[in-house]
Amino acid sequence: MSQTGKYVERRWGWDTHGVPIEFEIEKQLKLKTHSDIEEYGIKEYCDKCREVVNDFASKWESTITRLGRWVDFKHGYKTLDKTYMESVWWIFSHLHNNGLLYQGYKVMPYSS
Questions:
Q1: Interstrand relation of 11-14 and 72-78 (parallel, antiparallel or unpaired)
Q2: Is residue 8 part of a domain?
Q3: CB within 8 A of 17, min separation 6: which ones?
Q4: Residue 112: what pLDDT?
Q5: CA angle at residue 65 from 60 to 66, to 5 degrees?
Q6: 102 DSSP assignment
Q7: What's the pLDDT at 66?
Q8: Do the domain assignments include residue 66?
Q9: Stated pTM of the model
């Protein structure tokens, strides 16, 4: 779109939920099972996840800037931010209230 003269917001974002962050934490802390995580402490585990996300975020900013990609890091977002999560729930509530959500089934690959 920007090539046709239209303004395109270029906010950088990080998907911080899910397996890659959890895998990194479990590797660092040598946690093998859900019980290990509970014993370590859920709050402490989540705090450690945030710490790793912020560490990776600064590394990504350095790398992307060095590569010459033009994006706005100062107004970026992380999916762990409360405001981001609230905005997603707000959208889903409106979709639900307008009857636009449905339950379906789809085959999804996963690793156990």
A1: parallel
A2: no
A3: 79, 80
A4: 61
A5: 100
A6: -
A7: 92
A8: yes
A9: 0.64
Buried b (16+ CB within 10 A) or exposed e, 97-111: eeeeeeeeeeeeeee
Cα–Cα dist 45/28, whole Å: 11
pLDDT digits 0-9 by tens, 61-89: 899 999 998 899 888 888 888 999 999 99
Distance CA 53, CA 16 (A): 7
Amino acid at 82: K
C-alpha closest to that of 73 among 83, 82, 64, 86: 64
Residue 35: both structure tokens together: 């019980």
- The total of structural domains in the chain comes to 1
CA-to-CA separations, 90 to 12, 27, 76, 83, in angstroms, rounded? 21, 34, 19, 10
Give the residue carrying structure tokens 């209230």.
97
Q: 63 is in which domain, residue-wise?
A: 15-97
Specify if 1 maps to a domain. Answer: no
Query: Does the residue 30 lie in any domain?
Result: yes
Longest dimension (CA), the chain: 55
